[in-house]
Amino acid sequence: MFLVIGLLIALGLAAFVATPLLSAEGAGNSTLPVDVTPLGDLKRRRLVVYENLKDLEFEHQAGKIAAQDYQSLRENYLGEAAALMAATQEAEQLRENDAVIEGEIAARRASRKIQPPQDYVCPHCGFENPVPVKFCGECGTRITDHPRKP
Ligand SMILES: [Zn+2]
Fold first, then answer.
1. Distance from the CA of 144 to the CA of which of 19, 71, 107, 131 falls in 20 to 30 A?
2. Distance from residue 119's CA to the centre of ligand 1 (Å)
């Protein structure tokens, strides 16, 4: 019972601390505040767990908490910290993947810009039609028999 109440208080405190921060930063700001990223959120939650652990140590040393409650609360916080750390590593991995994918997309976009629009080059006059066309914009030759290559 004590454990549940302690966890609820911790969660409530975390939400209470986070909410005004988010709403204040979010208002009138088109870009997301750094802390709203999944990674930032995880780090903040980890800090909260560490704070709770420190408080727990103090209460234990001050004799304010029963040994049994101390042990179970401590186990719980440590488990939470471990889970958050695993989630952080996962999020970091995801962010790295995102960076890799974004890099590939950028590279693709760049190479697409450099490549001439082969698909719509007129076989008759060589005019590079800038958009998909059935007939050459320059001489009117039919160019649909040049299917678009991936
Ligand atoms: Zn042509």
1. 107
2. 13
Cβ-based burial of 119 (10 A; exposed 0-12, middle 13-18, buried ≥19): middle
Cα dihedral 45, 50, 53, 55 in deg (nearest 10): -100
For residue 124, the one-letter residue type is H
Q: Measured between alpha carbons, how far is 77 from 133 in angstroms, rounded to an integer?
A: 64
Half-sphere exposure of 123 (CA within 13 A, CB side): 10
Q: How far apart are CA 103 and CA 105, in angstroms?
A: 5
Cα 144 to middle of ligand 1, angstroms: 12
Calculate how far, in angstroms, residue 111's C-alpha sits from the geometric centre of ligand 1: 25
CA angle 127, 129, 116 (to 5 degrees): 85
pLDDT per residue of the chain (150 residues) written in tens, 0 to 9: 566 666 666 666 666 555 555 554 444 445 555 557 888 889 899 999 999 999 999 999 999 999 999 999 999 999 999 999 999 999 889 888 888 899 988 888 887 766 655 678 888 998 888 888 888 999 999 886 545 444
Q: Report pTM.
A: 0.45
Instruction: Write the single-letter amino acid at 68.
Output: Q
